[in-house]
Amino acid sequence: MTTEPTHADEYEHGHEHGPEYGHEHGPGHGPGPEYEIYDLVGVGIGPFNLSLAALSDGTPGLRTLFLDAKPAFSWHPGLLMEGTVLQVPFLADLVTMADPTSPWSYLNYLREHDRMFPFFFSERFHIPRREYDHYCRWVAEHLPSCRFDARVTEVEWDERREVFAVTHRSAGGVVSHVRARQLVLGVGTNPVVPEPLHPLLTPAHAGRVLHSADYRTHRALLAGLDDVTVVGAGQSGAEVALDLLRHQDGSGAGGPYVRWLARTPAFAPMEYSKIGLEHFTPDYIRYFRALPEERREELVREQWQLYKGVSEETLAEIHDELYERSIGGTEPRAALHPGVVLVAAEPERAGTDAGTGTGTDDSGGGYLLTCRHTEQDALFEVRTSAIVAATGYAATRPAFLDTMAKLVDWDDQGRYRIDGDYRVALDASVSGALYVQNAELHTHGIGAPDLTLGAWRAATILNAVAGRTVLRVPERAAWTTFGAPAARVPESGAPVVWPS
User: Fold this and answer.
1) Tens digit of pLDDT for each residue in 210-241?
2) End-to-end Cα, the chain, rounded Å
3) Residue 137 neighbours by CB distance under 10 Å
């Protein structure tokens, strides 16, 4: 399945949501006026919290509010290239896997936009990423619980009132406060860049050293360079490499030389077999959660091909582009290097030849990369005009939690301890509940960033927040038995009998 970023730190424009916590009072600063309290406040409106907002819409007796810093919904704008598709079927929308009758389904979106017949005739199971983004934007704009231009700056536990006090600020500087009995964090994940590139992430290298999250912003600049190196073997890396290849002209001379480096031992397709996909079910999550922490850490590393591989279609398209460029004995202006780790990176002076490109980069200096082939333990160097790090995303602790960090029961690595309902372990003095979405890779496994499980997880959280079954979630979703089967209790002296 996909590791779609939600990714993933997103905030849109407001409707009236009722009274708010008064501007002149904070927790512990006198009684102040009594305002209504939300049952649930969500921070961040990416696909996962938007799913929870959609599923909770209209739930009797439940008042919800979702806040996001951005002026409007957007989902990975730097990777919304033409021709890219979602790696999960359209049924993995915001609601269908938990409530196919919801008005916020993708099929109802098609109906509302008079696209049902074109969609039917296109026979698509995987939809364009640009349309998924537009679908999510449509939902966010119509849900009264979603408020954008509201950057959360602080969260405190008000012990006297037994509520979370949430402070948020608009782009214009207006500060507001809301109270919540329960909170859910859906602030997404942040781009991860290899350590050797950190010194180059400065304005002086903008557009030349970047994460793939910003690729579309600098696409035209990169397409005009002599040599571009893409680091990372996942779907984003493959899509960037393919897009750059397509910027090469028919003569073979125009467009950048494309170098694709990956630390994985192969440019491998993502696991997409019907039984293999059962790793993205509640059944596997329950199995994974019961494993010792050390074994969970090992499994996440071992299972890279389940959630960090590339779609077979994208790999085939890259191969076809290279084949086309080799007609007549021409050497394709590209190189693919798996099993490679970036060791060091440093800028070079303008005019230095870039890699195996045909010219020099006159608009600025290039970069010297030192790499190590892991299986051969061999060092080598390449020169390039630009570096795109398609090296994924990771969950980080949001700064607004600093004021109540001492009330969170962090694990030994500073991560949340999370239960089966996605509730974070808090100090006993906190009667409210804090939930997280897409911050539980270490406790729930590789399904954490996957859109397939988004609606199921949101329904699980919704039921916990409401204290009742609002939406039924399946007890079993996989044919696979993960782990050893339960033994029947044997008669005295008889051997243990395992079910067939």
Assistant:
1) 999 999 999 999 999 999 999 998 999 999 99
2) 30
3) 16
Q: In angstroms, what CA-CA distances link 75 with 9, 82, 100, 103, 125?
A: 10, 15, 23, 21, 20
Give dist(CA 459, CA 437) in Å, integer.
12
In three-state form (DSSP H/G/I as H, E/B as E, the rest C), the secondary structure along the chain is CCCCCCCCCCCCCCCCCCCCECCCCCCCCCCCCCCCCEEEEEECCCHHHHHHHHHHCCCCCCCEEEECCCCCCCCCHHHCCCCCECCCCCCCCCCCCCCCCCCCCHHHHHHHCCCHHHHHHHCCCCCEHHHHHHHHHHHHHHCCCEECCCEEEEEEEECCCCEEEEEEECCCCCEEEEEEEEEEECCCCEECCCHHHHHHCCHHHCCCEEEHHHCHHHHHHHHCCCEEEEECCCHHHHHHHHHHHCCCCCCCCCCCEEEEECCCCCCCECCCCCCHHHHHCHHHHHHHHCCCHHHHHHHHHHCHHHHCCECHHHHHHHHHHHHHHCHHHCCCCEEEECCEEEEEEEEEEECCECCCCCCECCCCEEEEEEEEECCCCEEEEEEECEEEECCCEECCCCHHHHHHHHHECECCCCCECECCCCEECECCCCCCEEEECCCCHHHHCCCCCCHHHHHHHHHHHHHHHHCCCCCCCCCCCCCCCCCCCCCECCCCCCCCECCC
**Residue 317's CB: how many other CB atoms inside 10 A?**
17
pTM of the predicted structure, to 2 decimals? 0.87
HSE-up (13 A, CA, CB side) for residue 167:
19
- Longest CA–CA span in the chain (Å) reads 84
Angle, CA of 126, 128 and 133, to the nearest 5°: 115
The residue behind tokens 């994208």 is 314
Q: Which of 231, 271, 269, 270 is nearest to 392 (CA)?
A: 231
Contacts 24+ apart (CB under 8 A), 244-249: 245/318, 245/321, 245/322, 245/325, 245/334, 246/321, 247/223, 248/325, 248/333
418, β-bridge pairs: 424
For 465, left (φ over 0), alpha (ψ -120 to 50), or beta?
alpha
- pLDDT tens digits along 385-443: 999 999 999 988 999 999 999 999 999 999 999 999 999 999 999 999 999 999 999 99
Residue 428, φ and ψ in degrees, nearest 5: -60, -20
